[in-house]
Amino acid sequence: MRDMSKKRSVLPRRKSLFAALLLTAGLFSPSVHASEKLKIGYNNWVGSAGVFVAQEKGFFKQAGLDVEFVPFKGPSDAIPPLVAGHIDVALTTADNVVLVNARSGSDLKIIFATDTSNGADAVVSKKNLTSLADLKGKTVAVTQNEVNELLLLKGMEKAGMKPGDIKSVNMDPDSAGAAFIAGQVDAAVTWEPWISQAVAGGGKVVFSSAQVPNLILDVVTVSPATIKNKSRAIAAFLAAVDKGTAYVRSNPDEALPLVAKRLEVKPDEVKGMLVGVRLYDMAGNARLLHDKVAAQTLDNISAFYSSHKTIPKTLKGSDMVDGSFIPAH
C-alpha cells in the first residue's frame, strides 16, 4: 500500500477558501471553539478505517466537533436521509451519488474519497465454476441497482456476457455472502470479510474490484446546503479523517484493534481486509479531485448506468465533485 501520509504545505496555491476554513475551524491551534454538531451516516466498511480511528482517538473532539455516527446496513441506505436533511454527511459510494442525482434531480456533491476498493469487493463462485463465463444459467446473489451489481455487470461485459445470462437474486452484500457460504446460491457479489470466508470454505474469486480500478470509490458526500451552512465543521471533519488515516499507516498495532472494534472482527482480519483497499489521504484526494480522476470515474459510471437504462439521463462527473475542501498539490 502506498504511503501518502507525508504532509505538504500547499495553502498558498489555493485562493482563500481552504485556509480560511482551517483557520476558523481552529485546526492551526490546539484551542477549539464551541463544539459543532455533525451527523454522519455510515456502514461498516474497512475503507472507513481513517474515520473510525479519528473517532476512537478523539480527533473529531480535538477539532471542536461533536460527531454523531448513524449506522446503516449498506452504502445506499444513508442517501435518502442525506437528501432529506436528517444527516449532514453520508459515507457512501460514488455510484450512489450518480443514481440519486440522475433519478431525483438532487445535487449531492463528493468532497472527499476515503478509499477505493482494490479487491475487497468480488464475485465469488463455487470451486467448479472457474470464470464468470461459467456463471451462465447460474443463480447469483447480488444487491440490485447498487455498486455490487455494477461490479458484476462490468465483469460480465468484459466476459462477453449479457445481464440475462444469469439468474439474479437480490440480496445485500452481507446476506449474499452468507447465502453463498450456506450453499444457497452458485455465486455471490459480496465484500470483506465474506470474501475471505468464502475462499477459506473452498470458493473462488472469479472477478474483483482490483480489475476495475476506482470503479468502487468510497466517498464523503454532502448536500450544497451543508457546504454552505457547515463549511467550518466539514473542513474540520476532513482534517480529522486525514489525521486518522495517517494514524492507521504510522501506528497499525494500535489502529487495527480500533478498526476491528468498529467492524466487530479480529485485528488480524482487518489487516487482511486492508490489503483489498487503497486508503486516500489529502494528497491522494488532491489527485482524485483536482486532476479529474474522480470526475472521470463518475463519467464512466454515469455512461454505464445510462446505457443499461438504470438512470434516465447521463450526468457530467465534474458537476458532482466539489474539491474546495482539498488543498491543491
TrEMBL record:
UniProt-listed Pfam families: NMT1
Domain called Solute-binding protein family 3/N-terminal: residue spans: 37-266
SMART domains xref list: PBPb (SM00062)
Q: Which family does it belong to?
A: Belongs to the bacterial solute-binding protein SsuA/TauA family.
Gene3D superfamilies the UniProt entry points to: Periplasmic binding protein-like II
Q: Report the locations given in the UniProt record.
A: Periplasm
Q: What is its main location?
A: periplasm
User: Which keywords are on file for this protein?
Assistant: Signal, Transport
Q: Which SUPFAM superfamilies match?
A: Periplasmic binding protein-like II
What residue stretch is flagged as signal peptide?
Answer: 1-34
Spell out the NCBIfam families in the cross-references: SsuA_fam (TIGR01728)
What sections of the sequence does the record tag as coiled-coil?
A: none
| Name of this chain's protein | Aliphatic sulfonate ABC transporter substrate-binding protein
